[in-house]
Write a structure and sequence with these properties.
The chain is of the alpha/beta class. It has a single domain (about 10-235), classed as Rossmann fold (3-Layer(aba) Sandwich), CATH 3.40.50. It contains nine helices and seven strands. α4 (about 85-90) links the parallel β1 and β2. α3 (about 45-60) packs across α4 (about 85-90) and α7 (about 150-160) packs parallel to α8.
Length: about 240
């Protein structure tokens, strides 16, 4: 992997110490990629903008929410974005990384051992449809995220059952349109949730449009949700 200059958009957003940890993470992901294909976004701006910047920008530009010292859940963590990125920039938070692929969770465990993280981090290989019906997991998180997992209606069914009453769900999206907004509103009505806020930016270096949709419980999500494995994906509410 060719060493590249850190984009100034990143160096103005995070500390020198955090940059060093992200560099260590980049090197280790690249090593693991030689054995198992985790991600193609590992070099240059693909890593620093499409992975790192895209993961952390919501936590940096939303000023009226305290994101520190939280119980944090990342659903469909893949190779660790946004979950490990949030962990690096919020070292006092407790982190849960969930993925249904054992290849991915095995890789996450290796990555966590390889880089200098201060968080208490749990890696779980399971489906969120199963975990959401466990009493120790349900309604227990301050923050839950999904990035590049599925459509907003489907991932809302994953997220809302996991949140505390005052918790916050963060849905990472590419483009966002009126039809998707209407579909999400209908889904949230069923799940006893609501949209708190929407944010949109253009990523630096012409890396595209990004939206985040912040959702909250109005009341605790009905116990039947999420439905059985595969249902939320095949038949979104």
């Amino acid at each position: 992997m060719r060493k590249t200059k850190i984009p100034e958009e990143i160096s103005s957003l995070i500390t020198e110490e955090e940059i060093i940890i992200f560099q260590e993470l980049q090197i280790k992901i690249d090593e693991l990629n030689n054995k198992t294909n985790l991600t193609r976004l590992i070099d240059g701006d693909d890593y620093w903008i499409s992975q790192v910047f895209d993961s952390i920008w919501p936590f940096k530009i939303i000023n009226d929410i305290n994101f520190d010292n939280k119980k944090f859940l990342d659903i469909g963590s893949g190779c660790g974005f946004p979950g490990l990125a949030y962990a690096i920039t919020h070292p006092r938070s407790e982190i849960f990384l969930i993925d249904s692929s054992k290849k991915k969770t095995d890789a996450l465990k290796i990555l966590i051992k390889s880089i200098n993280l201060r968080n208490n981090i749990h890696v779980i290989n399971d489906r969120i449809e199963n975990l959401a019906h466990q009493s120790l997991m349900r309604n227990s998180f301050n923050i839950a995220t999904t990035r590049a997992v599925s459509n907003p209606s489907t991932v809302s069914e994953y997220i809302l059952p996991m949140l505390k009453k005052e918790g916050l769900g963060i849905l990472y999206c590419g483009k966002w349109n009126e039809e998707e907004s209407k579909n999400l509103d209908k889904t949230l009505e069923i799940l006893e949730g609501k949209v708190k806020e929407k944010k949109m930016i253009l990523l630096p270096r012409s890396k595209g449009t990004r939206n985040v949709i912040l959702i909250q419980p109005k009341n605790f999500c009905p116990e039947i949700y999420p439905r059985k494995v595969g249902k939320p994906e095949k038949n979104p509410l």
